[in-house]
Amino acid sequence: MNEMKRVAQARSGGKLLADALVAQGVTHAFCVPGESYLDLLDGLYSVRNRLQLVTCRFEAGAVHMAEAHGKLTGRPGVAIVTRGPGACHAAIGVHVAQQDSTPLVLLVGQIPVEETDRESFQEVDYRRMFSPIAKWVTQIDDAKRIPEIMAHAFDVAVSGRPGPVVVAISEEMQKHLVTVPDIGPAEVLPPHPAPEAITRLSAMLARAQRPLAILGGSGWTAEGRKAIADYLIANDLPVAVSFRRQSLFDGTHRNFAGDLGVGADAGLVARAKEADLILAIGTRLGEPVSQGYTLLDMAGATPIVHVHQERTEIGRVYRPALGIVSDLNAFAAAARATQPVAKPVWADWRKTLHGQRLKQAEAPDYEGPLNLARALQALEKVLPDDTIFTTDAGNFATWPTRFTHVKERQDFLGPTNGAMGYGVPSAIGAKITFPERPVICFVGDGGFMMTGQEIATAFHHAVNPVILVFNNQMYGTIRMYQERTYPHRVSGTALTNPDFAKFIEAFGGHGEVVETTEEFVPAVQRALASGKPAIVEVRTNPEQVTNRATITDLREQAAKAGGAATPSAPAARTPAPAPRRTTPRPR
Fold first, then answer.
1. pTM of the complete model
2. Residue 6 needs a FRET pair 20 to 30 A away by CA distance; which of 80, 102, 331, 507 works?
3. 243: which residues sit within 8 A by CB, 6+ positions away?
4. Nearest to residue 186, comparing CAs of 156, 218, 222?
5. Is the pLDDT of residue 566 over 80?
């Protein structure tokens, strides 16, 4: 009776929007406030005991936090930003959600409807702006339609291939009083694979000599990850993960073959080209996974079984021998229920691929006092089994990918669209989502300075991620390509940085500086034990621009290949590492 009375009461559009979020099961919303949605903010105040509003410092950071929440929970992350500049800042997070197939709902304040097409203050046509990078873009101008449109927005975000939805909310609509009921989530059973598809898959696998499974995509549950692992292990298949999808398979398992992404091991790429059956499960087989669309023949010379939630993704580039449209978790359950291949002939093939993975993870003898490979491997041994890792984009990110292994209960979040500035906000979003789990962020000095100010959000909401800032005083990836193509001609890639440890200490956090291999693990352990947001600045050798090559190596390779000649003017020098800190850490 009380619920019926509440529904019968007139509510403002702002209150309806807040209630609509609660009705859809939203527990967190990440925002930068704006006057264009004051009424929604007031509505959120009334549901503050059911929905935590996280106040952020930059719209891109807010959307990255929401996207991380969506990755970890499988439910749409929610971000709220203001009109014009706020929406433009948020666009990069929408693009991350699109390319990472992450469910996301972005609410954007909008100008009053009667001012449309006058180039009013902060006016943007969001349908035109976001349509190339969102699954659906709409605008609510009639408060009566709030429950309907919001429910549909959440449905679209999670349906098929998950992704972002943008909902503009006009300013005066939020003030209108209307009487409409709330609408909850739709009860939808996930699509299952056709029975004949599973039968055909089993027959194709039984005929294979050198099969390779590639796991990717989003929407996996813990049960689904367990089911697909059981299936792949029961058939003794070598398993690779697609770009930044290390969470999908236990990297310490004997069936793990490595990751097919940016910086993939050349040995794994060569073996993948020798495979006579590819099981592409969840992955889109996009540019990073396919090594620039060179891994496979697009006409289907190598048989591919492609499993994906979205029919239009199957055969988009590579023509499969068998396409299976299915929810990934439903497919995993159906596959696990099949009889494993009797006496598979690919045992040596699997051992070869796993052996190559172990070989490439061996730490070389890098020059200098800090061997980052050995430091990361030592860290892997002491971190809890439920650690969440987040990573930014950049050359530094290939070090943990190559030299460490994500375990079965750990999570790994990274932007498959290569967005710099993702690491710190996603770590904060992860820690807010699961405050009881340790969160470690890998970020370069360039990426940190894009969104590192979001560490203020961690303090404001009392969460304590540990941020590892790999500082080589340059945009390392671009410098790498620069030296390959225009050796000695350093232009636009050198950086000047602050003292990162002092930066976090200014907030009252825990700061450390690491310059040697031996200092690394104790510093991270102290950061975790501090109970505070923490930064461990890792001063790396700028000459070691990748985990496989130095700047000198790249210049010599360019010279052999007939690259650009050394200019007559003095060459720009590689910046030296910042001077060693003399103040003991921590203070």
1. 0.92
2. 80
3. 216, 259, 260, 261, 262, 286, 288, 289, 416
4. 156
5. no
